[in-house]
Structure formats: structure tokens, C-alpha cells
Amino acid sequence: MLTDQEKRSILVICILFLIGLVARYLYLKNETSTVYTPAGIEHLEPNNE
Description:
- With 49 residues, this protein is an all-alpha fold.
- Helices cover 55% and strands 0% of the residues.
- It has one helix spanning 4-30.
């Protein structure tokens, strides 16, 4: 059986884990996606293969 201190430690670890998951979810939900265009790619000519 676990002692009270061990139970508290596991509870704290689980709470921190859940806070991290919620924070990651909110961050990804509010992040706007942008199209990545490397510098100089707009100057390349189309490849006619």
C-alpha cells in the first residue's frame, strides 16, 4: 500500500501532466498556420521536365 506522501506525490505529478496537456491543446488550438516559403524560392524558374 502507498503512504500518504507517495499518494500526494503521484497526485501532483498527474496534475502537472494534465496541466501540460491542457496548455498544449490550447496553444495548438489558437495557433494560426502560415505557409512556409523559403527565401529565394520565388525567384526560381519552373522545372519543365
